[in-house]
Sequence to fold (305 residues):
Amino acid sequence: MQYWYLSFNRFFRNSANHFGLAVLAAIYSCNVLADVGDLHQTKPSHETDTMSSSHPPKFDRITGMDDFITRQPVPNVNIRGIGIFVYDGMFSQDALAPLQVFKSAGLNVFLIAKQKGSVTTSSSLTIVVDKSIDEVNELDVLLIPGGALATAMQTIDQESLDWITKIDAASLYTTSVCTGAWILGATGLLQGRKASTHWYRAEEMLTKFGATYTGKRWTTDGKYWTSAGVTGSTDMALALVNHWFGKQYTQAVMLDMEYDPKPPVQGGTPEKTNKTIAQLMQEMYDFFLLPFVNCAPGTPGACLF
Fold:
């Protein structure tokens, strides 16, 4: 049932042969194109929180198959695409869950690494990446996944930080998942903003980067979207799909993935977890990350050496 949009695209092509391209093009133009062009050129501002506003009702309602299969995101993030920056040691789900959501929505999404080739995640999953940061100069959307020690190391990788800053200068949305907010914070782009991140010493870490921790599943501040740890990536990705397409299209994506989570026990945040277990988990992370947390502001990664 994955990639249902491919079937719809085939249906669209077959319909075009039967009914004529002119008719379907007219439907497409009337329903979609008139609303897309200008919006793509408008860069969301920090002063006005345009990212938190909902679409007008016309974007929420899908009136039939023609509308369904020709629906485009607003703004059109397919032009330069959605790039997910990946690196050795990242958490697999931080990158691959949003990738699945965006692919199911029919969006132009791809992985980018410092160099082409293999990237191995913290769970020993090897991914082949065919785009390097040298080849990508602009994106509509940048997503930065998190991890643990590997993510801390990324906060002092000046080449990666410079590339993120360059991409952010022209992006419509700059986003992070989990501790990916540490990397985004190390660029200075979260200074004075609200953000979400992984629960581990979240307030201390975001304060280091001049940001305010909200404790929310995901947070929007202007064009910056940040999510809580790991599984929060799915919710934020769906929230972005909802923002670009509307509720009904998002429901189609959720149904395609059969996304209806029901965990067997309560947990997932420190507040919902047994206090002893929550403390032990923090101590486990402290064992190898506390020196990084305690680094002086401005040199957060240097304490790892």
Residues 88 and 120 are 5 Å apart (CA to CA).
